[in-house]
Amino acid sequence: MSGAAEPGTVAPTAADRPVHPLYVRVTHWINALAVLTMLGSGWQIYNASPLFAFTFPSGITLGGWLAGGLLWHFAAMWVLIANGLVYVTLGLATGRFRERLLPIRPGELVRDLGAALTGRLRHDDLARYNAVQKLLYAGILLTGLVIVASGLAIWKPVQLRELAVLFGGYEGARLVHFFAMVAIVLFLVLHVVMALIVPKSLRAMIRGR
Amino acid sequence: MRRSPLSNADAGLLIKDAAKLLPDPSRRLFLRNTASLGALALLTGCDIVDGPSSEKALRVVSHFNDWVQARLFNPNRLAETYPESAITRPFPFNAYYPEEAAPDVDEDRFKLVLDGLIARKEPWTLEQLYALPQETQITRLVCVEGWSAIGKWTGARLSEFLRRIGADTSAKYVHFACAEGYSVSIDMPTALHAQTQMTFRFDDQILPTKFGFPMRIRMPTKLGFKNPKHVIGLAVLNTYTGGYWEDRGYNWFSGL
Fold first, then answer.
1. Which domain holds residue A154?
2. A176 to chain B, closest Cα gap in Å
3. Could you give the residue ranges of the DSSP H alpha helices within B91-216?
């Protein structure tokens, strides 16, 4: 939307550059697969010892039973972490994170959130994120960091004790890991809904523009 | 390669219904018939998600994870210890059999049978074991299911016992056989860890039947299922013997 608000600042190169460079598209879809695998297997693991008074329906869990869920979870974690490292490294090195996600101004956030909720938010230039997008994308990056760190603390509460202490110990890390999962699922739902509302954004994540 | 010579150490004591806890007793392919996560199945084809090829691939990754964990394991790093006030009471019972099916080991007939790369293989009576220097730890038991509980265990250091029997501590594995047919094997560095204990008492009482009388091996650096109860045999080996749950899909190293 902000492309229309500041027409003078549109770079002349904007037309030549893809909305999403190849590395972003590749890592995005690898991440999508890894996250779905982590979610399905994670729910299977959760069901073996539920933290709360509910379990996940077996139809959406992966692995068949606890051992299968664990095997999937501890295999997909390598894909998630390796892929995430490539994405974050390139995002920082190319300046994409800074360019796309910063700054996040409270005033713009209030304005764009209001526009989003009343259906007036425009998505003319996919390469320029509105303040709500910036906040959500920055937020999901942080959430990714939290869920990986809390997951490592659950996996290795003795060898990585200092990390576990950050989350209030082993049981604290379990809670943090769970709520980070909830945050990711909420993001995922919104993310997919928005992609359906603005289909050209989905196309851009496949073809680049 | 499976099953140590100890499995038949005392046939009279062995074997309950070994497969009781499994969702499907016949399943060797533990991922079979697990309709799951529609989107992923669509993207990859059901064969890859649920079939024998995926199980094989996942086992390869699990072996890789054993290797990673062995390298992450710091033999000098101790698991956190807790004050008495932190002890979980009542302490949860967990096994692949119901509590009343826990094996009754006759303490007069009990002998710890030794095998493998050990210089002095004479069996040990309970009286001899109780005479070993003992110490107490209050540590957290973390179950593979996710829950954890803090308990108080008293017994002898396994490393001290291995020294006394002249075990070859350059060997790769220590294997434990249990009265009810359970078995587990661990890496030597964990066997020599200062908190790895031959446990004879739980919460200041003689180890109750449900928690593994007469002897449990307690390792606060490994998941609960790696802490065998009712241990009647110990072997020092260079061959991989897996274990009851490990053969069914749980990660072998399972270090914390």
1. 23-49+61-207
2. 14
3. 126-130, 158-164, 188-191
